[in-house]
Amino acid sequence: MLIVLGALGYAVYARIQVAKAQSAVNGRMGPRTFPVVAAVARRGSMPVYLNGLGTVTAFETVTVRSRVDGELMKVHFTEGQLVKKDELLAEIDPRPFQVQLTQAEGQMAKDQAQLQNAQLDLSRFESIKESITPQQIDAQKALVNQLQGTVKSDQGMIDNARLQLTYCRITAPLSGRVGLRIVDEGNIIHANDLMGLVVITELQPIAVNFYLREDDISEVLKRMTAGEQLAVDAMDHDAKSVISSGTLLATDNQVDPATGTLRFKAVFENKDGALFPNQFVNARLLLTTMNNAVIVPAAAVQRGPNDLTFVYAVHPGKKGATSQPAGGAASATPASGAPGSGRGGARGGGATTQPLEGMVALKTIVAGHQEGDEMVIDSGLEPGDIVVTDGVEKLQDGTSVTYKITPPTSRPATRPAGRLGATTRPAAPNSNRPGGRGRRGEE
User: Which domain holds residue 54?
Assistant: First the structure.
């Protein structure tokens, strides 16, 4: 038993001695330095978009049907072809209608001859009206009027036969793209066939119907009433690239009570045919543009208790430099070669190749609009200030850091539109005090 207790005591003594040695080494080495990634606040323009789910819709879609019964003799289009208005699509056997036209013309010639003879008799009766009764003259006049009506009816029959011949040539009612052929040559088609021959869809221009939250309606209507032409982009499924650009055309007249959204319609020229009817898109309406705004990466913005919003600003310089109090201006004089020194520094926004040394200070800010990966800072930062974007988990006010500055992104900011009205906000840090460690996330 005494041997066991002695061994345990020796082990505890050894651990204490090792801890003391490590503390002494850490004390001689000074405070620990953490590597971080930083970015430079810049002044620029930030677009304000409203995002919604949308569907591409054709302005006109027509099912081409025959107006007469007969055999489909010839089809002049290919499936998927782009056709112009009044372009010949198909031909129906015209011979039965040519026969009807010939019969109508013969009947009219017969009735015209009878009318001519009746008119001559009426002229004779009027020349010898002293020798005949007025009743005979009136009867002859009635016969002439009757035959005139018959000739006019014959003319209607001729016009109808000619119209049927015209219907034997089926033409495109609008310009657009034809779909898959429904009926092949040689089939007998009828005027009352429900399926028709083919469907033509107008592609240029084309519309996109999309939905926006009812909270955004007033701003959009205010600008439409003022006569502004609002731009709308049709985005792909990931809302990262623009498929086509157009303008807002109209709005619906009532909010959907089930979803709390209003339907909007935008028009696109679609000259390249990038949009297709019934295609799903993410619609992005440009409401306004914030000019001369201070912009930083959204990852730099942290949120603390009591809605405290802050960033970790980097003061370039040697280790041990005095940091400024939270909320103060981050205008520490940079060391030679540090950002802002004008001698190879990265304060102008270029990427650094070697880690720089500095110290972070917690700065309270007022965050504004966020679009994609960037956020507007209403107050608390100035253009050129350096803020930490990655590695904030271990930072506190006054922590020494080594940092590299990432260049600003050159692509336009986009916001995913997977959920109506969804926005991305910085998350709260995992500490209850402003200088505590923060974490980035989405609310």
Answer: 50-59+202-291
